[in-house]
Each structure stands twice: as structure tokens, then as C-alpha cells.
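One chain given next:
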Amino acid sequence: MERAAALTVSCLVGFFISAFALFTTVRAQGITCSIKGTVSASTNDPAAHPASLAGARLSLVNKDLLGTPLKTVADDAGNFAYLDLPAGKYLLTAEAAGLPTVSKEIGLTTGATVILEIVLTATVSESVTVREEEGLLSTAETTTSNTVRSQTLKELPLRAENYQSALPLTPGVVRGSDGADHIKGTRAGDSAFAVNGADVTDPVSGNLAFDIPIEAAASVQIEENPYSAELGRFTGGVTNLETKSGGDKIKIETARVFPTFHNFVKGQIDSFRPRVTLSGPVIRNRLYFLQSFEYRFSRTQVPGLVAPHDHSSLEGANSFSQLDLTVNKSNRLKFVAAFFPQRLRFLGLNIFNPQETTRNTKQRGDLFSLSETSIFKNESFLSSLVTFKTLHFAVLPQGPQPLTVLPDGNSGNYFAQSDRGSRRLQWQENYYAHPFTLSGQHSVKFGIEFARTSMSGLFTFKPILIRRRDQTLSQRIDFTASGPMNRSLDELAAFVQDRWVFNKKLTVDAGMRFDRDSIARQSNFAPRLSLMYLPLKGDRTIVRGGLGLFYGRNPLWLRYFDLQNEDALLSSVTGESVALSRRFPQRIVTTFGPDGFTVIDGPRRFANSFNGTMHNSRSVRWSMQLDRGLTKRLVARVCYLQRSTTNEPVVVPSVINKGGILALSTSGRSQYRELQMLVTYSSERLRNWNVSYVWSSARGDLNTADNFLGDFPSLVIRPNEYGPLPFDTTHRLIAYGDIKTRWGVSLTPALEIRSGFPFSKVNDRLEYIGARNQAGRFPTYLSLDAQILKSLRIPFIDKRVRVGIAVFNLTHHFNPTEVQNNTGSLRFGQFFSSFGTSVRGKFEMDF
């Protein structure tokens, strides 16, 4: 098997090397540009609305190269698209019989997507409206995504004020009670995150481990149904952040320079997030820079706790630097350097866990990336990307005492201390060939990627004492010693993708992806297919569908159980026990009778073990979607999605004689179903309004390995069950948009209503009573937030500032985050920790 796998890899590498020699490249997500839009015809009657102009002919010329024009024809809805373009200056020409020809010069920066609305009239007049892509409805593509621009991120009432806050604006993305985002019913570590195409996930956990000041962000794109073969190593979704580039003028932006107080104008400082961004030219028309810096401090109060021990805090900084260099008309370089240290105090603080039982975390990381785009004479182009990222993450308890677990609240200190670091080197080459005609127009792209990751870690766990309400000891959990661990991960990926525009009605994207890593050591081939069909002539009805196979990434914590056989072999050879095990700490469980002294089971040592062969998680997803333009400004969507995932990593305990085994295996499974209904509307005063309703069901195995091998492992490990996932929400309604008033005031409300999360019922030994996650649900969540902004001009210095306020949970709705689910407590069944109405000021200035 190993020789066959090696032969497969060798053949694939040889194929791609040969392909590069014959052709030369594809796109890296975040490197290429797009031009999309509509062509319509109008009369001189100002009351008449423009009509879609099917069959309009469009020609696009790269002015830097002056090569062969790229030609296309508008479909029956008047839509057109030029995808996977290199950055540069372009001339677009639109023409139709009996109407004047219109031309427009367009400048595309790296990663930009421009939307054009071209209106041709029977006279010599015509108009072209240029804007950036935004929203949940994409035109002229087989898949749709949610694109949120930086200006929208600033205008929306977002508690965190970071680009990750754009994710819950997307239907099917739920933010769990732990603050993690779950895309399409998957756990947080099952999705992919990138910045300008560079992977920014934590290689150990798979979670997002990167942040930048919001002023440096150009747009955030959340792929709802990512069927493109160039996207891989996930089973959930894909989020890509595009950053800004410097312009021709020096520009300074400042924001949040004043702190936010707990009582609005007095009391403790709840938040202080000053941000400064400087951008402009170093060498005009050749080299541009952007430097953005943010300091962050926030304090979160927990209702029900007594001051001054009633809050947790976050302190950190983000520095983001970018250089964009135009070497010549055919070559462009982008260099990025980012640093993001962060410290959290009293993480996990709630009504049941006072400050002494919580943990502190320290994180520091850096990211360096260099990307280059080479455009060839036939207007094909190669994009190259090299990225180096480091991340150090430490979990620190408040003291050395054991953790005591009681039905009404815990005491002592947090039990898990860890210190880990990782490094990842990523190299990516993608080629986009010049389109050719064969029974329609074909656009072929292919690419290859290598990644090398190393991890080192040290884990120290202290005892856990589980007591009854009368203080008698019910169970004690001790842990074996563990020494330093060093693990590595190698990844190889390749893909080929063809976009086939069969005719004006039908477009098909088909591709194949290959993935292999050094954990599963399996060659995974994932075919993908998506299509767009216009069933009606001259109408705005679009049918989209997709079917694909996806393989997830194996995070490095799956290798925590490695080398135990090596330790056992060392012990047998030397005849002595291994003094310092390189294994993950093992649990020793002792169970006591009602008196708290009599041992009724144990001490039982649970050995950590692999069970069977390690696989990559495997997901099959399909979806069908109908978009209907009800008016020029009003569009409706109905979509159904189903995803089935197998080979998920789970941990299952079993008892053997006087011992036990915690078996890590990839035998887990989950299923997600979603029915989505969406309406979008946009006008001059009501901009980018989105109203969506989602019915969904997320079920799966509940002993997922991240709960036990992650940075914050569960206290106890109980038998695995299949049931509703902790972030399952049956119903969810989201509405947000921008209201422009005649006084220059912008009002941006956001409403979210969803079903409460499910919870389980446990006894005083933390054993589940009844089916897990089926004991009930939290109350319905409802939050109405709003932000009001006013732009003002400062006299004498002729500069503009934006001032305003953001109000969260306007209705003061009861949205608890904790439930007493322990039957041994007198407060069993009660909900706690609801955050009421809060107000935050806003001040921004541009120079």
C-alpha cells in the first residue's frame, strides 16, 4: 500500500511538473480579479426601467499587454463575467445592434471584484455604473457567496469589530455559545480561513488564529457552497479576507481613539481599541504601502458575580504591513507581514466558574507571505505564493490547586496547563490558461501546493475532584506525567478546474482535487461539479446546483496519541519504566461510594490509543438553489443543502478488566440539512438589505476529538452518542441593512432571532441522564442591535470625522448563556448570564 501511494504521488508530481513545462499556470484564491455586471437597454422615457439586453457583445483588453481581446456575450438576463483576471488596467467595450457602443477603462487591484451596470440607450447617451461586489447574490457564477466590504463592516453594529464578525451575517453560519463560528453544521475546526489566499488557520486545532485591524480589510468573502476544486481541506466552508492596497495619495485613518466606559461616560473602561492606518505611495505608480496597527483591550462583565471578581479581559495588538510592487507590465509582487500577540485573563468565567477556576491564555503569532503574478503574452498567467506562519499558544491556570467540581459551582484551579508552538511553510503555484473554444468557451486552471508544519508541546494536567452537594467525594481523576512532544505534518494538494460556458443559458464548473497528508497517508481524490442554468428567456430566473466530495484536514492534535508504542518498546528493551513519557497525559479514574471514602471502582488507568486506521474526514454535499429577480432591486432565493460526513475523529472510552482505553478513531459521522429562504433589496436610501430565514438540522457523534484533545479538554469522558450537535439551531432569522437619511445620518439595524441551543442533563458525577443534548433548549435568542453614524466636517483643517453610537440588545431580551443542568443542584433547570442593553460610542477620522 505504501509503495502504491508513493507511486501515486510521484505520478501526480510528474504530471504537474510536465504541465508547467508545457503551459506555465492558475489562480490562487485572493490573487486574481473579476469583472461582473449586467447590460441593459433603455429608451428616452425617464419613467421606463431599463430592460435586460440579452446577446450584448463584450470585449475586454488588458491595456498593459494589448493582447488578444477576451470576448463574451451577455446571457438571457443580461449578465456577464470575466473571472480569474490578473491585476492591471483594462478597457471594456459593450455593443449591441442598433445601440451606441460604450467603452470603460477599469483599474483592477489584486483580489478586486468590480460590478458594472451598463445601460445603453437609443440616443448617443449611455451610462456605466461601477461599484464593488457585495452581498449574498453573485451574478454570472455557478455558486454564490456572501461578500462583505470593509465599509459595511464599519457601519454594522458588530460587538467585536473584526472581520470574523462577518461570518454570522451569512445564512447557515451560527456562532456557538463558546464564541466559535460553525459553518453549515460543522465544528469550528472543519472550515478553511485565508488572507489573500494564504492559509491562516491554527495547524494544531484547525481554528482561525489570525486577526488584522478592520481598516486594512477590503472585503470578506464567505463561500456558502464552495464547489471549486481549488478549495480544499475542509468539510464546512471557506472564508477569504482580501486586504487593501495603498493608493496614489498618503492617507491616514484613525478609529476608536476614545475608550468605552461601563456606564457610557463613567465607571470602568469596558473597551479601548484605538486603530491607526497609514497608506500611500512609496514610488508613484510602482510601489505602494499600507501599515495598520490596533491595540485592543476589552472587559466582559458576567451578570450574577460580585465585583471586582465579575469580569474577564482581553488585551492584544495587531500589526499588519503590506507592500504592493509593480515590477513591470507583466509582473506584480505583494509582501505581507503581520504580528498578533494576545492575552486573555479569566477565560471561561461564568456563574458556575469563579475567577480562580478559570484559565489565562497567551498567544503570539506572526505571518509572512510573498505572492507574485506573472502575465504571459497570450494573457494566461501564473500566481505564486509562499507563506511562513508561526503560532505560540499557552494555557495557564490561576494556581496549583486541584479543580473541585460541585453541582452549584466549582472551586480550586483549572486542571489543564499546556504550552505549544507551531510553524507552517506553505508554497502554492496556480496557473490560469487563456480561454479557448470547444463546443462553448472553456477556462481551465490548475494548481499545486505543498505545506510543511511542525509542532512542539508540553502538557501538565492536575487532579479533578468531583463532589456531591454534601461535599462527599464522588469521583477523582488523576493524570500521568507527560514530557515534551514534537510532531510534524506534510501536506500535498493539486487540482484542475474547467469553467465551461456551454451557451448563454448553461454554465458548468467541473474539477478534480487531490489531497494527501502524512497523518492519514491516503491519496484522496475529490470530484466537484456545479452549474448555473437560465430556464427562461429574458428573465431573471437562475437555477444553480452543485455536487461535490470534500476531504477535511487532519489537525495536528490527532498526533497527541502518537509514539505510545515506541515508549512501550523502550520500556521492554531497557527493563525499566519510562521516566518521562512523550505521550499525552493518561487519565486515572477512581469512583467512590456514597460515604466519599469507599472505593467502588478503580483506580482505573485509561490508556490512550489509536483504533484502526486514521482517515481524513469525508463529506458529500449537494445543493439546489433558485434565484428570482422580482424587480430590478428585489431578489429572492430558495435553496436546499444536504451534507453527510464520515470518518470524523472521535474519542470513545471502554473498560477492559481493571484498566481501560480511550480510543481515538475516525469512525464518527454527522449530517446537516438546510432549507434557506432569502430576500435582498437595495436602493439609494435602503442599501444592501438582506433578510434570510434558515431551517436546519445538525446531528452527529458527540464525542468529537476536539473536545478532549483541544486546548480546553472536557472534564470527563463519557460514552459516545449520536444526537443534536451543541450548536444545532432549528430556526434562524437574520435581517440587516443600511438606511440613509436626508440629513446625512446613517442608521444600520441588525436583527437576529434563532432557536436556543440544546443541552444535556447530568447527575452529581457528571454522568448523562437520558439522551445527550435532548434534555431541553435554551430560550429563544433575540437581539436587535443598531448603529447610528453621522459624518461631520471639522472647520479650519478641512477634514471629516464620523461620530455615532452603537446599541446592542435594544429590547433587553433575556438571552442566557448558562444553564444549571446538574440534577444535584437546588437550582436545576435555571438559566443565567444574560447580557442586557449596552451602548458604545464611535469616533473615526481620516487625514
Summary: The radius of gyration is 28 Å.
